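Bench notes, afternoon.
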Amino acid sequence: MKILPLLSNRLFSSSRLIWMWTVAFLMVAAAAQAQDEGEAAEKDTRPVRNTFESIWLIDNQTVMVPIKGTFEMDIQHRFGTIDKGYDDFWGIYAPSNIRIGFDYVPIENLMIGFGFTKERKFWDFNAKYALFQQGREGGWPVSVTYYLNAAIDTRSKDNFPKDTYEGVDRFSYFHQLMFARKFSRAFSLQASANISHFNFQELVPGEENPNDLLQMSNDHLSLSFLGRYKVSTTMSIIAGYDLPLTDHEVNNPEPNLSFGIEVVSSSHAFQIFLGNYKGIVPQFNNVFNQNTDFLIGFNMTRLWNF
């Protein structure tokens, strides 16, 4: 008879002990979860600053969109190729290509602009929107930006085949989806997928048989890769590479390779570089580059905030 009360007391004690441990475990788990949530809440998810120093990096746009109310002027210059050496002072006195552009940020994350280029007398109109921005400690691991460019070839009709050229044939377009990450204070990388479209492509003699008239595709796919490494607070080493993907019937473009240095201040950016392309409007640069020789180029930007 004494065994039953003793067993009952032990079971009661064990049950009470289990409940005590269960409650203690739940309290510790709740405290740990609250601590984790507190730490997560304390993470700085604000966008990283200055993944790149300019909206341009050599011949490509970057993911950067200036702050709301920013007005920008761009001057982009490409000298002639350096293959003739001293005869034209390594291309500096050779025929050049120049673009002057203007951009404005009317609302946060959206930039609109236009420009005029010497080659083919292109007028281009563009827009860029920052879809996602890399967080400083949490949030998005990369920045994602979309860029659109529409250009009009405004040369006279004498520059085009007769009876085959209409007004809409003057238009071309460029779409670019950019992904970038700032890995450290000094090092940033960007990759992008690009689509170029020309409403009109001329018939040209074939490479193997000149009597065969062939035509490049109206659409062209390419990839772009950009990199920047800061060597000081105001100077960086920069590089870019554009890889064509579309295989055309004729006149397949050469890849674009470039590298140089960038010097910046709070309202200016200056880039000087070597590259093997002469075009500045992106769709023309990606589709029609046939250069294998390098040339000197530079970009200058000036910012005003209103």
